[in-house]
Structures are given as C-alpha cells and as structure tokens.
Amino acid sequence: MINEVLNESIKKLKGVGDKRACALLRLNIKTVGDMLAFFPREYEDRTKIKRISECAHGENVCVRATVISPVKCNYVRKNLIIYSARVTDGLINMDVTWFNIRFIENAIKPGEEYIFFGKFEQFPKRQITSPIFEKPGVNRQIGKIVPVYPLTSGITQKMMIDLAQQALSLTKGKLSETLPQNVITKAGLCEINYAYKNIHFPESLETKNAARHRFVFEELFSLQLALMQIKKDREVKKAQPIKDTSCMKEFLAQLPFELTNAQKNALRDILSDMKKSVPMSRLIQGDVGSGKTIVAAGAMFAAIKNGMQAALMAPTEILATQHFESLSPLLLKFGIKTKLLLGSLTKAKKKEILSEIESGEVSAIIGTHALLSENVKYKNLGLAITDEQHRFGVNQRKTLLDKGQNPHSLIMTATPIPRSLALILYCDLDITQIKELPPGRKPVKTIVANESLRARVWGFVNKEVLSGGQVYIVCPLVEESENLDLKSVTLFADELKNSIFKNLKTGFVHGKMKAADKESVMNAFAKGDIDILVATSVIEVGVNVPNASIMIIENAERFGLSQLHQLRGRVGRGQKEAYCILFPKSSNEITKKRMEVMKETGDGFIISEEDLKLRGPGDFFGTMQHGLPPLKIANLYEDIDVLSETTSFVKEILEKDPHLLSEENRQISAKISSLFNNNITFS
Description:
By secondary structure, the protein is of the alpha/beta class. Among the domains are: 1-47 and 149-175, no CATH class; 59-143, CATH 2.40.50.140; 247-275 and 291-413, P-loop containing nucleotide triphosphate hydrolases (Rossmann fold), CATH 3.40.50.300; 445-601, Rossmann fold (3-Layer(aba) Sandwich), CATH 3.40.50. The chain is built from 24 helices and 22 strands. α8 crosses α23 (640-656), α9 (247-253) packs across α11 and α10 packs parallel to α11. The model is unreliable at 616-627 (pLDDT under 50).
C-alpha cells in the first residue's frame, strides 16, 4: 500500500546515508512521511519580474536585464575573486556580482538577456549579489515558486528540495485521506495529494494558500478532537466528592491577610467542582504574583479535611521547596503533616516518606517529577495539583492522576493567554482566571536602555544593593557564542565580579548546572548571601526573593514577550520599589514594538495577546501545552478563525460518532492515537 511508504526510513531516498540521516534526525525527519510533512517555512516567488526602478532595498526580486559589459574579475586576495557585470533593463543600470564562481566569466555574455533572481541592494549602489540566473523561458530555477525549508548543519536547500521531490514521487499521488470525506466537502478543503504537492511546490500563491489551509485545518481539527475526547473521558468517570466545605471558614480565618475577590472566586469554582462526583479538571490562570499558591493551599486543605490526600507537583526542586516552605507551616496550624518528595533525597529519606504516603500518615505531599515514580503509592489521592503546567506533558499529568481513583485535578499556570483562545485550546479543562493582584503589590517600572546608559545602570545597581536590594541579570546564553554577539552567563558573571562590582557578592546559575549546585546558588541568593545573580531564564520560575528589586535582561529581543513578563515578575515582591531594565541589542521595528509593549503594560493577558501578534508563525501551542504534538504549520494568532471552525466540526462529528467507529472516521482516529503515542483512544 502507498500509505505504508510513509513509514519507510528516510534512507530509502537517494542521497541519504547514515551521516545525512543523522543530520535529518536533528530536524525530526526519520521517515519518508516525516519528509513529506516537513513543510517549507517560506517561499521565494520567482514568477514576478520587476523593473529595476520597482525594486526595494533588501527585497528578493526577479529582474529581466541585458548584459552591457564584459565580466570583470577582481582578485581581492588569495581565495577571493569577485566577478561582476553591468546590466540594464533598458531604463536603469545595475551591477550583478558573484564571489569565487569561476564559470561566470564564460557563462554571462555581453548583449545577451537573462533573468536574475537575488537580493536587491540600493546602497551603496544598485546591485544584486550572487544571483541565480537563466535565459528567459528556460524556467528551471526561475519562473516558479520555490520552497525554503528550515535547515541544520550538513543539509542544504538544494538537498531538501530534492528529498521533498523524491518523497512526493514515491507516494505517486495515491495517498488516502485521513479526514472524513464529509468534513473535507463541507469545509471546502483540497484533496490530500494535491495539498502535499502544492505545499512543497505550489503552482501559484493561490494553490499554496489552498494547501496550507488544508493542513492548518487538519492539524487543528486533530488536536481539538483529541482534547474534546480527553474531556469526554473525564465526564464519565466517578470521583470522590467533598461533602463538607464549612471547614474553609477556619482556613480563611488563619490567614494573615484577606484574599482578593479574584482569589475567592477561584476557590469558589474549585470547591463547586470538588463537590461533584465527576473529577474536577480546572485550569487556574493567574499573572505572576496574583496569589495562585494560596488558592492551591485552600484546595488542598478542603480535600484533606474531607479524608483525602493532596499532592502538588512543581517542575523544579527550587519551586517545590518554595511551595513546601510556604505551605507546610500554614497546614501545620491545622495539624496537617506535609512532606517534600524530591529526586535528590537520600534513599533512606525517600523510603521513609514513601512509607508515610502509602500508610496515609502524610496527607499533603509536595514534590517534583519524583511524585510520578512507580514506587510512590498513595492511600487515597483525591486531589492532584500541577504547578506551571506547561513544563509537564499531558502523559505526565495523566501518570499523577492514575495514582488515585480519578482524583480531582487542578492545574496552575502563570502564563496567561487571551480567554477566547484559552476556551478553545483548553477545551478539555474548565478555566478560572485570577486577574487581580493582592493589595500593596507595586507595579514594576520598566526601562528600555541602550549601551550609552550602561554606566548609569551599573551605578544604580551599586546604589540599590548598598541600600539592601538584590539584583537579577539575565542573559540568553551559558557560554559565549562564536556566531552571535550575545551576552554569556559565565563570562559576564566573571567580568562583573572581577572588574565592575568588586565590592559586591556576585553569583551565577544556569540550566546546565547540576540540580544540587543550582539549588545551592538560588538558596544563597534567597538568604541574601549573593547580591547579584547572573542567570539564564532558568530563574523564570524560581524562589521568592522579597529583596530582589532590579531585573536586568541582556539581549532582551531574544526572549518572547510572555517570557520577559515572567522574568519581570521575579522582582517587586517586597516593600522596595522595583525596576526591570531591558537591554535589547537589535533596534528593528519588531524589537521596538515589543519593548514598547513591555513599557506600557504590566497586564500579562494583554502582553500574551501582543506576543501572539508579534512572534509570527510559531509553536505557541507547544509552549502552552507542553507534551502535546507541536504545531507544524498552524499559527494560533493568524489562524484563530480556522481554530473556531474546527471546533464546530469536531462537536458535530463526536455527537454522531462519539467513539469514531464508522469507516470514514477510522483514519482520523488512528492518526490521533499515533500523534498522542496511543494514549488517547475513542473506544
């Protein structure tokens, strides 16, 4: 069968041996099917011919021109020869230039007409450097729309084009449909073989757009179908409901502060869910510092008071320890014993805690991925809480839930997205948003600085530390990059320590460090033993340091808006006025817009919406729902209408065939099971 060809090794294609297969693996291309589904990131339109006067600086263009001078050879130095010729379109002249391409001397002839394709430069003179060229009417490389693929070391565009052509040739235009035919017809989608051909080698921009629409629809349709199935499965399960919520008065009375209205509403939603015999599956979206942890504590308290165990899973040992240190004393006031389970604990300590969990002696358990271990057995797990949920996969959350008899599930994230998008993306979850910050929380002042302000910023840092403050400095790299002019954590920390801030205590932390070393540095910073912490974005989710009053972000253009907002949230947690100072290296329009957004608002929901607008095509879904299949072609800002459209189709299909047992639905059922590693079934 033709469809079986898709599962064949990429080595089946000519020109792919072990070395090239290894390089393609870095692009996640293992099979012929992977190559077919490896879509171009953009296209070069070589069909439109422009006059020189119509060409814009920096634009890739096709120009039809006649050569009016012999090819000149300029021997610049050893191993560098520049070949150039003057051409005209009959009105304006320009130069065409190549480097070390020896055959040019005989290939370009004065008086002959050619079509040149390449990047046009207006300054310092009109020219196209290293253009592709051919005679009019040949149409081998020009006169068509050419795909541009993402690459990796050892793989060229020419290779990728050849491999895509081979993959298409092997399928012989006989691939069978995965989408149900009635969906294809109603949604007006193009046929699958037509779509594959035109996504790689479109006949026109219209056919490329039709092919893209088909694949965007199929991608979002598959994800929506899977997410709705997860929700449907949950709704038929039976959970242990809580019967008494009057205990919450006792909990709230013991707090040293009053909850905000948003926090109260979140607790109300949670308790309402947990009263039902259907397992709760609720997402709490709250901006940095909005008080999600105390809401989680209230949920744990209610579960434990109703005879259940409650577990809270955090992505890092630092964050898990922080939760333990804040929640353990609070729960102890009510006689509730809390234990911290980490991978780094000694074997003896782990054994002791595991025994207490299994016997039910411990009701509140906080930990990392260690909570998922096979040897962790709960007596009666009734509530599972996942913090910073995008750091965990769907399967990891499922593993935790499988530790109990359909326990209630609460998921927390400080990465807000617009509610309209959240309702679709998280269609398997009920959603509560905490948009209100606790009283007294001051907004962080954000400043965009350039290198001319560097000395003033260092002076400000020195003054702030001497008055009791602490400082984060975030860099995008661990080690210096040869290719990019980016600040490196280790080198920068060394420079600050030995020359700029000799009088201050400077430390550094990054993701490549051992967990114990990382934790040691973060704890030293939290205790005030370190004044300036140079770090990668590993501190995006980190310890609560009330004295931290300045966040400096180097190469700020390298971070997404939502990530910049998360980093900014690390400061301003105490009484001191807090500042976030951004040092972008780039000054292009996109960077300017993004920095302006950071200056103008501290609202994470607004920032996330702008992030979607400005980041361009990307895997926003992958960052939000880590563990789900990443989007290969859909853009959740540009394709929001398609996302909405697929929702109505999915609801309709599940109403008629909830288990996808009909013949026309079997292919899409198999595809979804494959996408989710067979963890989702429709039976």
